[in-house]
Design brief:
This protein is α+β, with helices and mostly antiparallel strands. The protein has 7 helices and 7 strands, in the order H-H-H-H-E-E-E-E-H-H-E-E-E-H. It has one domain: DD-peptidase/beta-lactamase superfamily (Beta-lactamase, 3-Layer(aba) Sandwich). It is 31% helix and 13% strand. The strands form 3 sheets. Strands 5-6-7 form a 3-stranded antiparallel beta sheet, sandwiched between helices. A hairpin with a 4-residue loop joins strand 6 and strand 7. Helix 2 crosses helix 3. It is globular and about 60 Å long.
């Protein structure tokens, strides 16, 4: 599930299918799907998209289920586990896993989308309440603390981190490819570890990830050998954080190595 080779269908697709069967809207920005409901939708499926380990397909369902597993094993809510094991030890005082009615976020940004010549607040979607695959609010300062903990292995040991830096292979030992209807051309090789895309950039090793929802776009890429991490957080949908991060990487790598980039 951590590297998206489980075959679990993405719950957003299951939501759409459930609403089509019912002929009604089941979830809204004010009545959002919860983690337990994601598990219920998965239980109704007779089979996965493919046999585990035979293909690669990004699935938010896997991360939701993993969050539920953590809660079950730890005996405490997932938000509390994150707070005790990550946020408090790293002094990430501006970071929390948000659950409406359970905790609050001070001085947070709200998402916005541009419609014609006007801006509209688009802050929550029907899927904004799930935790295993999202729901964490943070700041650049706190994410820098998290990044430093990864670099110094104070959060995970070097050995523990290695699994995240090892690209997944399929059961037939082939490398996985991007499926149809994804962010990259179908059939393009995809290199993915535990929670990180791992393809290099301009011959520099790189780990990266992105995220988006209504009103928000985010992008983070780390160049461990170059001691460079770029974090882009946008609360507006007209910006391309991947492009912005790439421009920053080009400026840094060009200056650091004193030459033109390939």
């Amino acid at each position: 599930m951590l590297n998206h080779t489980s075959g679990l269908p993405d719950y957003e697709d299951l939501m759409a299918a459930a609403e089509k069967r019912k002929g009604a809207t089941l979830w809204t920005p004010t009545h959002q799907i919860q983690d337990a409901e994601v598990l219920d939708l998965l239980k109704q499926e007779a089979a996965g998209k493919f046999a585990p380990g035979t293909q690669w397909s990004y699935s938010n369902s896997g991360y939701v289920v993993l969050g539920l597993v953590v809660a079950q094993i730890s005996g405490k809510p997932f938000r509390e586990f994150l707070r005790e094991r990550i946020f408090v030890p790293l002094k990430m005082s501006q970071t929390l896993a948000y659950q409406k009615g359970q905790n609050e976020i001070a001085s947070r940004a709200y998402g916005h989308s541009k419609e014609d010549d006007a801006w509209k607040e688009t802050d929550q979607s029907p899927t904004s309440a799930t935790l295993g695959d999202g729901g964490i609010y943070s700041s650049l300062t706190d994410l820098a603390k998290w990044d430093e903990a990864l670099a110094q292995h104070t959060l995970l040991s070097e050995k523990e981190m290695q699994a995240a830096l090892t690209p997944a292979q399929l059961t037939d030992s082939n490398k996985p490819n991007w499926p149809a209807n994804s962010d990259r051309p179908e059939g393009t090789p995809v290199s993915y570890g535990f929670g990180w895309f791992l393809d290099p950039y301009r011959n520099h090793s790189r780990m990266w990830h992105y995220g988006d929802t209504v009103g928000f776009h985010t992008y983070l890429q780390r160049f461990p050998a170059d001691r460079l991490t770029i974090i882009i957080l946008c609360n507006r949908t007209d910006l391309d954080p991947e492009s912005l991060a790439t421009k920053v990487a080009d400026l840094f790598l060009r200056r650091a190595h004193g030459r033109s980039l390939p």
